[in-house]
Amino acid sequence: MFVRKLFVSLFLSLVTVLIISGPESHFNLDFIFFLSLYIYPFYFIYGLPVSLLADWIASKTEKYSRVVSYVLHAIGGILSAGIIGQWSFAITGLICSVAYAFVNHLASLNRFSSWIVKGTIILLVVDILLFIVSCGVFMR
Which UniProt keywords apply (predicted)? Predict the structure, then answer.
């Protein structure tokens, strides 16, 4: 389960960076690097533990576990705005957390289980490189 969560965190942090720095900014590398410094740690320091906790609580409710998981992910996403200190990020947190729950559900299906480990390794290398380059760009 942890490898699946790691895959989801790696995948969605990369997707979030690319969506936020989308075509309007012409995929400006400085902006991508800047976003990476904030988005990656947030997914791993906050998103991953919240998702583990949400799924653990949801597993205790057998009948409605998927609905409970989505609701707890959504609550965690909204509360992330309080951690940041900007309640205007509540909608963004809600969208990202529901996307996290959805991708996590897709990754849990048997048809995807064969490439989760390979995908996690590839995404880990790409994301670590992006984060290291981001640190180097903004530390100079």
Answer: Membrane, Transmembrane, Transmembrane helix
Give the residue extent of every domain in the chain.
2-139
Contact 37, 131 (CB under 8 A): yes
Task: Tell me the residue length of the chain.
Answer: 140
pTM listed for this prediction: 0.80
Locus of tokens 């904030």? 38
What is the DSSP track for 63-112? Answer: TTHHHHHHHHHHHHHHHHHHHHT-GGGHHHHHHHHHHHHHHHHHHHSGGG
Over residues 88-132, the pLDDT tens digits come to: 888 888 998 999 999 888 888 776 667 777 788 888 888 788 777
